[in-house]
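Two proteins follow. First one:
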Amino acid sequence: MEKMKNRDHPMWKNPQGENDFQPKRFMEAGIRTLEGEGNERKFELSFSSEEPYGRWFGSEILDHTQGCMDLTRLNAIGVLLFNHNTNKVLGKVVKAWNQDGRGYAEIEFDDDEESEIIRKKVAKGTLKGVSVRYSVDTWEEVMAGKKSSDGRFTGPCYIAKKWTPLEISVVSVPADPTVGVGRSQDGWQDGLDMPSLQERMIQVNENMVKGGFLGE
């Protein structure tokens, strides 16, 4: 096991000479609006989990144990974007919290015309994807067959031990179906098998190529 700062992580050492690391995670799920009068523009979503995420350098895990995820920014100035476009602000993050190994947020759409168009698509279930952009300050490298420092993960993998969600986006090209808008806190849908890491890695790569995210 080895703790390393962000710049020491192998994501900066792509053998092809390019930084292939995308500090984003794409998700897909159902929709759940908040109940009660006056909450028509509010939704609850899950934006992160500890599911391994396939990168070119290996498996990446966002640690959700106490003190690993810094939610200060989201709770202070968090915004909801469309496809990570900073010129397309849809609303705000009302509050964000960490529960049962997942990041959750209550978001509220603005009432301008552009935001209302996206809100209706989310409410109708046309748009189900959620993506989080984040930064990582400290990593833990776990070698093949070894356990992480807390014994919860088995290598090979790289664990983000200090990381910060920067913004949450509604996206049109999701890839990770384990969390998202209205995602159940109970985890994977009953009766459905969790896709293998290899299957998720293939889908992630295909969706990122189609969406034009690779090579940003």
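Second one, unrelated to the first:
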Amino acid sequence: MPTKSSKPNKPPKPPARRQPETLRLRGLEPSLTVNDLPRSIAFYRDVLGFVAGEEWREDGAMTGIEVRAGSITFFLTQDDFAKGRDRQKGVGMRFRCQTAQDLDRLAEQITARGGAVDEGPKDMPWGERQFLISDPDGFKLTFVQQR
């Protein structure tokens, strides 16, 4: 009597993707053009707690740097002022930064390191706890505690 060959169980086939295929991103790495690169590096590294990463230089002068905090990367680049020195930055946008860290303690640490919190930690009606801060160029950040 012949025996049946055993076939391995195949995982179910994923559903067909919508056509035309929609955009699927894997990350977001904002690049901020700043007025004073050393001042911005000091703020993100020494005040907020980002870690400095790769640097970019032209003719020996630093023109940009990546700064990381957890899985988030920001790029800071020196403005060449081709669009004017009085150009307002950070208007109409805000970076929402999520953390599992204690938000009240984080805000206290930032303040102790010289940061000026725009709005202290508070519970929001939709169930999150957050605080607001602006960087030296006016870019806005909201720190949100994941619960």
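SUMMARY FIELD: The CA atoms of residues 17 and 23 lie 11 Å apart. The chain has one domain: 31-80+93-145.
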